[in-house]
Amino acid sequence: MTSLRTEVDQAVAVLTGADVPSPRADALLLAAHAIGADRSEIERRMVLGGGVEPDELRRLRALVAERAARVPLQHLTGTAPFRRLELQVGPGVFVPRPETEAVVDLALQGLVGPGGTDGTSTPTVVDLCTGSGALALAVADEVPGAHVTAVEVSELALAWAARNIEVTGLAVDLVAADATTPAAGVPELAGLVGRVDLVVSNPPYIPAGMVPLEPEVAEHDPAVALYGGSEDGLAIPLAVAATAAALLRPGGLLVMEHADSQGQTLPRALAATGEWVDVVDHPDLSGRPRATVARRAP
Ligand SMILES: C[S@@+](CC[C@H](N)C(=O)[O-])C[C@H]1O[C@@H](n2cnc3c(N)ncnc32)[C@H](O)[C@@H]1O
């Protein structure tokens, strides 16, 4: 039987040669997926000199070859961690990113902060551009009793979001709609106009023509999830913010993720509409401008 340690070392070498950003972590996670164990069990078996069965070896080598071709790790394992959840992802849906988890922190702070709902009530929350359902599901998970609606335009993404709602068993209403069109014209959203406490959104925001360098993003995240529809990338985010302004009650909160380069332009553009007050930008854990928080003007 082939030694697991030798096989993982070989996988690390292959992934390093393909410029995969975290080759050892990925090799361990792929071994875990191929063998049907968790990562710590793989590390334990490596220390104890364990081996790999032939069918496990075939699976692992096939996965490593795909990862070396820069297929996203999450497409190979079929899951992406997000906050306390393990979401199902694959072709056709944006893979939720760790930095987006900060949007949930800001949302939670806003719900219990001054002017927010008091944390014991049941806030009404809308996630515009939900993708896999990441933000909507995390809020539903972490704010018990919240009434959460998730809006998405892509049919493929809607299918993944529906699957994640089913698998997690969390209460989220999924709406197929274009989040840049007036909410009053969308039957499932019309009843929420002026009543929502919190809108979270991670819209497409990459400036047009700025193709991401990582093949995992450029070749596997859907274009509809990436590009913000204008040279500065803000056309879709600002149209989504206009929908948020219509949905929110006076004093309701918007938390919107943006690109590093939009830490000043997005807050300025929001403030200029006159629809928002207390517009503040926040960095993520690595110190990069990441999300704008704003309150609906009375
Ligand atoms: C950057 S991804 C974010 C997905 C998810 N919120 C997350 O953080 O992982 C943007 C999502 O917005 C969706 N989208 C793009 N334009 C949209 C629109 N006009 N209305 C609704 N959803 C839209 C895309 O299909 C994609 O799922």
Topology at a glance:
Blueprint: E1 2-3, H1 4-17, H2 23-35, H3 39-47, E2 51-52, H4 54-68, H5 73-77, E3 79-82, E4 85-88, H6 101-112, E5 124-128, H7 134-142, E6 147-152, H8 155-168, E7 172-176, H9 187-190, E8 196-201, H10 215-220, H11 223-226, H12 235-247, E9 248-257, H13 265-272, E10 276-283, E11 289-296
Parallel strand pairs: 5-6, 5-8, 6-7, 8-9
Antiparallel strand pairs: 1-2, 3-4, 9-11, 10-11
Helix pairs in contact: 1-2, 1-4, 2-3, 2-4, 6-7
Describe the structure.
This protein is α/β, with parallel strands linked by helices and 298 residues long. It folds into two domains: 2-69; 79-296, Rossmann fold (3-Layer(aba) Sandwich). 42% of the residues lie in helices and 20% in strands. It has 13 helices and eleven strands. The strands form three sheets. A seven-stranded mixed beta sheet has the order 7-6-5-8-9-11-10, sandwiched between helices. A two-stranded antiparallel sheet has the order 1-2. Helix 2 (23-35) crosses helix 3 and helix 2 (23-35) runs antiparallel to helix 4. The longest helix has 15 residues, at 54-68. It is elongated. The termini are far apart. The structure holds S-adenosylmethionine (SAM). S-adenosylmethionine is lined by residues 94, 96, 100, 129-132, 134-135, 151-154, 157, 178-180, 202-204, 224-225, 236.
